[in-house]
Amino acid sequence: MGIADLLPGISGGTVAFLTNIYERWLSAIKSIQPRYLLKLQFRTFIKKINWRFLFPLLAGIIVAIFLFSQIIHFILEHSTYKKYFIYFFASLIFISIISIARTIPKKNPINWVFFLCGAAISYLIYQGLISYPMQSNYFYLFLAGLLGVFAMLLPGISGSSVLVLLGLYQTIIFHVKNFFDSIVRQTLPLQSMLFLGSFTLGILLGLMVFSRLVLYLYKNYQHATNSLLLGLMLGSINGLFLL
């Protein structure tokens, strides 16, 4: 999921969906309940969190971002490696779509409508993948984190692609690299910390709000939601070839 979140064209939600942990992932995020913090009930807040699931997952994501940001940058800079890299992810998504689609009733026209809508939305998003300059002040970075994490929660729409659309992708990658490089050098990257801090606040708020919405839809309208998510995943294959 950490590697996928670095790439415009595939989302961490897609990987969670492919590895069959999507619902558990959303439920674990939902276990983080800020209302206990507001009531100063810190022990209750900590106990409610599903650490057994979230800790190894978040550790893997952080390690992947730290280790693979340079590797992915190298792969995407070399067309030969990039081609095989894209084909690998595209094949993985396509095969998984076929596998998951077998669990959805085909005779229900509503499921087909949601599937086609998801595919169309995802395809059109990536067809419009152009740089849109966005002011790099802290409020807009907060909004970018909010929008990016909503996309990350949905299989098929990449949070990194949203950052590309907003003109912030390369800037975010630069500050992530600068932050980790500064830790290795034992220096304090104040500018990167402020930059990424505003961005991270948007991500945290988005996780609290949007995970509950997506989980509710997934539990109460499973086949329709799965159909929509599969459509989003199918359309996202187009986004991979725009890397």
Task: Describe this entry's structure for a reader.
This protein is an all-alpha fold and 243 residues long. The protein has one domain (2-240). Helices cover 78% and strands 0% of the residues. It is built from 13 helices and no strands. It has helices spanning 2-5, 12-18, 22-30, 35-38, 42-48, 51-77, 79-101, 109-127, 138-153, 159-165, 169-185, 190-220, 222-240. α7 (79-101) packs antiparallel against α13. The longest helix has 31 residues, at 190-220. The chain is globular. The chain starts with a helix and ends with a helix. The model is unreliable at 129-134 (pLDDT under 50).
Relevant terms:
single chain, 243 residues, 13 helices, globular
Number of strands: 0
Question: For the CA atoms, what is the radius of gyration?
Answer: 18 Å
Gross morphology is globular
Major sheet: none
Task: Kindly report the average pLDDT value.
Answer: 78
Order of helices and strands: HHHHHHHHHHHHH
How many structurally independent domains?
1
Q: What are the low-pLDDT stretches, counting only 5+ consecutive residues below 50?
A: 129-134
List the total number of helices: 13
Structural class: mainly alpha
Q: Give the termini separation.
A: 18 Å
- Portion of residues within helices: over 70%
Give a brief rundown of this model.
With 243 residues, this protein is mainly α. The chain has helices at 2-5, 12-18, 22-30, 35-38, 42-48, 51-77, 79-101, 109-127, 138-153, 159-165, 169-185, 190-220, 222-240. It has one domain.
